[in-house]
Structure prediction request, 204 residues.
Amino acid sequence: MTLALALRHLRHYGLASLIFVSVLVALAGCSNEKPVFTGSDISGTHLGRGLSLTGMDGKHYTDHSFEGKVTLVFFGFTQCPDVCPTTLAELAEVLKQLGDQANKVQMLMITVDPERDTPEVLTAYIKAFDDRILGLTGTPADIKQVAGLYKAYYAKVPQANGQYTMDHSASFYLFDKKGESRVLLQNNSGVAAIIKDLTTLLAE
Prediction:
């Protein structure tokens, strides 16, 4: 039996219209499905809007500079004793495992210690892990303003020797290709979780 003949038989019993409507409903349902992330879905929060900092390459960057790529942002500093180097090593592994897909991802480390983290210092530090990660810095006022855009916490902690260290939040912020904030991942989520959420956004 041909398809046309089969449909005529179905129309005779009123089933063709029912099937057609059912297919449309199913397709509509699929198109409205929200992606499932490992991290917290922060879609619609518009975090990071208004970013304006200097890259370790000396260039000026804004939140619009990375549109067209999926972006991962985190806060850190080069004299961090443990969390930051662990994080950078983990992100370098993520980029390695992404393969060619890594070309569609931009990772950003925003320093919370602009007094010491000049573009030159950031370059030397980050290149030891993966030079595809871009370090961003600015004046102390710039960093304060940008941290507020991400609702990120940081504070200078004096030490007994007259030096200081930094305390800061250590989450990953993931942005889609349009520059919209989409996912908040804890820094201990692991390589697999980061890759999963990045690839989910890459597929959009």
